[in-house]
Design brief:
This protein is of the alpha/beta class and 341 residues long. The chain folds into 2 domains: 118 residues, 3-Layer(aba) Sandwich (Rossmann fold), CATH 3.40.50; 190 residues, 3-Layer(aba) Sandwich (Rossmann fold), CATH 3.40.50. Helix content is 34%, strand content 14%. The chain is built from 11 helices and 12 strands. The strands form 2 sheets. A 7-stranded parallel beta sheet has the order 8-7-6-9-10-11-12, sandwiched between helices. Helix 8 links the parallel strand 9 and strand 10. Helix 4 packs across helix 6. The longest helix has 19 residues. The protein is globular. The C terminus is likely disordered.
């Protein structure tokens, strides 16, 4: 099939080229992000392939439909950037990559924990400037600390097991507890997790029930000096509340691979521009905050899996096979607290 692959990055093209040797689709690699302003570039393509920061709002979807698009192939697990109801109303089919490498994201979350704890980012900068002082670089043993994992799906479960390997006590919250994992970790309520955890790591998808699950109220319930890690979706955290908690010392460390207003910022080189996002700029001033630009998925294995699964999804649609990775409006709705799929 003819595919318009939007928001193409050099690090992923080689993997799509390699995977496509098996499928032989006709892929056009487009650099622009998919928005309502660029959607007409999809004219003549029955399939568009979208990245995590493309914007498939109602206006974009209507243009895609007008241009003859039939299938939206997300090369991501998350789908909060797609208005699924409008897509369904327009007859547009949406598929995703539900699991590309849970180890990639879980290991990146672990890297944030270790870097913040041992001040690796600060030590690196010092040494490069010839400063070999150890003042201000004291960390703590992870062994024996309590780690709270919110969401124990594929990624959260891997992260929990890594923390167990460090000798941590792991507690978890999920509406659908993993029976196998429950043999090694203790499932508790959210409030109990907030009160007990020295480190809190987020591994839930973004939807109405999980938006700002970490807000001022949640932060106030946590241990003073808690470490907060987010490799899920940016809007799981109320950024304004986080900044306030960092200023007061309620949050001692924050490791963020995602940010709620990252669209148009992350994945871009803005080094010669003035950063316009005041909250992100404020976060970057804290010495105890480590921000990475949504790179948790960025491993060779994950990129290969993303490419192959995406192209397999498209082939299944073309050959009228069951779409195992289709997402539709209402499929993941819940009636209470946050959980992971």
């Amino acid at each position: 099939m003819k595919i318009a692959l939007f928001d193409t990055h050099p690090f992923e093209r080689e993997h799509f080229e390699a995977a496509n040797c098996e499928f032989a689709h006709d892929i056009s690699y487009l650099e622009p992000r998919l928005t309502h302003l660029t959607a007409r570039l999809a004219s003549g393509y029955p399939v568009v392939c979208c990245f995590a920061n493309d914007n498939l709002d109602p206006e974009t979807l209507k243009v895609l439909k007008q241009e003859g698009v039939q299938l939206i192939a997300l090369r991501s697990a998350g789908f909060n950037h797609v208005d699924l109801k409008v897509a369904s109303d327009l007859g547009l089919v949406v598929v995703r990559v539900p699991a590309y490498s849970p180890h990639a994201v879980a290991e990146h979350a672990t890297a944030l924990v270790l870097s913040l704890n041992r001040r690796i980012h600060r030590a690196h900068q010092r040494v490069r400037e010839g400063n070999f002082s150890l003042a201000g670089l004291v960390g703590f043993d992870l062994h024996g600390k309590t780690v709270g994992v919110i969401g124990t799906g594929r990624i959260g479960s891997v992260f929990a097991k890594i923390m167990l390997g460090f000798g941590c006590r792991v507690i978890a919250y999920d509406l659908l507890p993993d029976k196998s994992l429950a043999k090694e970790v203790e499932y508790v309520s959210l409030d109990s997790l907030y009160r007990q955890a020295d480190i809190v790591s987020l591994h839930v998808p973004l939807k109405a029930q999980t938006r700002h699950v970490i807000d001022q109220s949640a932060l106030a319930k946590m241990k003073k000096g808690v470490m907060l890690i987010n490799t899920g979706r940016g809007a799981l955290i109320d950024t304004g509340a986080l900044i306030g908690a960092l200023k007061s010392g309620q949050v001692g460390f924050a490791g963020l691979d995602v940010y709620e207003e990252e669209e148009g910022v992350f994945f871009e080189d803005l080094s010669n521009e003035v950063l316009q996002d005041d909250q992100l700029a404020r976060l970057l001033t804290f010495p105890n905050v480590l921000v990475t630009a949504h790179q948790g998925f960025l491993t060779e294995e994950a990129l290969a899996n993303i490419a192959r699964t995406t192209l397999q999804n498209i082939s299944d649609y073309e050959n009228k096979k069951p779409l195992l990775n289709e997402v539709r409006d209402g499929m993941f709705k819940t009636t209470s607290s946050p959980h992971t799929n």
